[in-house]
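Researcher: First entry.
Model:
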Amino acid sequence: MISRLHEKIFSLIRDTGVQVIALLGGGGKSSLLIYMARVCKAQGLRAIFTTTTRMRFSELKNAGPIFHIQALKKGISEEKGPMPQFSLMGHKEGMKAVGISLDEVGEIAKVYPSYKIIVEADGAKGRPIKANLEHEPVVPSNTDLAIGMIGLDCLGRSMEEVAFRSKELARLSGIQESEDIDLKTILDLTNHPEGLFKNVRAGAKKILFLNKSDLLSEEEKNRLEAKLGHLRFNVDMVWIGSVKKETLKEYRPCRN
């Protein structure tokens, strides 16, 4: 039986108005990229998976056979492409795949117009929540859909314990690093111009994905879901679910 998460990802990817999808934040970007690769394979969709930062080589390989960007620059057209689904990197450094440039994402989109391009465009060092430095996140200018991720295992824990760039997150949210993260912290990070969706072009669709709901008790999930409907997130949709468990509920943010 196809899960709700599978159905929703398939619906997003096959949207003819979406070619480039950027994954941002922390708390499961690589897992989501790999899951999206599984959906594309199961549904027979053409897709390219890459990063504009760095990610584990093994994780990028799980999305599809890896090709170096330079190989595709040697006159390979869409008709002569490697295969229906593959991954791209700039080069390898140790256990990491170093990503391609923003210009190269644009070039690939033009050469492969019928392919969906899924880009891990941020780094969080495995933390569930993160803030940005000046150069982050590395979002392609032709992004059509941005999925900003936050792991719900950050709730109730101090910024300095679980956040990547905790000083920047404290500054952005107006509290101390020693204080615990709550829904207001997530709201502030999502809505701030320098926050989760920084560098995403105007007009791109934005989804906030609150991942790892499987780590919450039923009581905690019910309380969280009851509050979500009253919060004014500046996004098109809020997801709460678990990539690991393939669960998903979606909410339209409050506009009043």
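Researcher: Second entry.
Model:
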Amino acid sequence: MSTFSPASRMADVTSFLVMDVLERAQALQRTGVNIIHMEIGEPDFATPACIINAAKHALDNGFTHYTHSMGDPDLRETVADHYRNRYGVSVDPGRIFIFPGTSPGMTMLFQTLLDPGDEVILSNPGYACYSSFVHMAGGVPAETLTYEEDGFQFRPEDVAKRITHRTRAILVNSPCNPTGILLEPERMKALAVRAFHVLKLNVYSRADFLLDEEGRLYCLEVNTLPGMTEASLLPKEAKAAGIEYGDLCEWIIKKSLEERYAGERTESL
């Protein structure tokens, strides 16, 4: 009898604790226990009628077949319009990919970026799944601690210490799950001066319009910072119970690290 043996890169991929808790809570619910769910990131109301009706309309009108491999062209045009109208950024629809949620987009992103042994700098605390996405691509998470006294902001000098010749990307989750912080503009600029792939995740894109203490919008200029690649991933502004879409946009403002720095990856920030 054959024995299933997973790839060695899966050794460091753990189950998602949130889903472990959810599944245990659901099991208790099936036995009659009254559960208040505080583990999973979804609203406690049903999907709005307008979304349900739009889905029904699509099904009734034959939208049940394979789309373009990158996603429906009309939808990608609409996403490009969104970025142009909201952020003043021109994104070619040919560089937009549609995914059924966060995890597939993140998985493809790191499968595309990483060779075995490549490193991705992540914040700690950070979203629990990010390190697993890196491991699944054969990469190595390089965690950088963030501290309460800094409001859990990246310290650029600490990030610099984590940079090696294998560093491929710095992942910036802003607004951050679980800390809720927006990365301050000056810290973002300090990261963006490197020509690494600085991946800024807009998982909660509406929050980009939060104000700082002086009433100024901030963290929006990430889209135009020199030397930066942004992967704007999976905005949840259309998120509803049971419904989630994702778009992945990537654009490179300056030349790649290999072209610009040619062996100088360890230069301090």
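Model: Note on the second entry: Residues 73-87 form the longest helix (15 residues).
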